Amino acid sequence: MKTFLVLLMIVALGACVRVGEFTPERHAQYEMGKPDCNKTPEKCINGIPW
């Protein structure tokens, strides 16, 4: 039983190692909804998109 729990913890730790690293497609999808404040200043307040 202890061996199983140790292996389970190792697998869980291995799954968390790359958390926060996204593919370029995911970054592009995230940036898609944000306006460019230089091109469309009417969509920004003090340089911050809203």
What this model shows, in words?
Helix content is 46%, strand content 8%. The protein is mostly helical and 50 residues long. It has a two-stranded antiparallel sheet. A hairpin with a 2-residue loop joins strand 1 (44-45) and strand 2. The mean pLDDT is 80.
Q: Got a strand count?
A: 2
Mean pLDDT: 80
How is the main sheet built? 2 strands, antiparallel
Number of helices: 2
SS-derived structural category: mainly alpha
Q: What is the assembly state of the chains in this entry?
A: single chain
Query: What's the shape?
Result: rod-shaped
Side by side, the strands of the main sheet go: 1-2
Order of helical and strand elements: HHEE
How far the N terminus sits from the C terminus, by CA atoms, comes to: 53 Å
Considering DSSP H and I runs of 4 or more, what fraction of the residues is helical? 40-55%
Strand content: 5-15%
Radius of gyration: 21 Å
Which parts are unreliable, with pLDDT below 50 for 5 consecutive residues or more? none
Describe the structure concisely for a colleague:
This protein is mainly alpha-helical and 50 residues long.
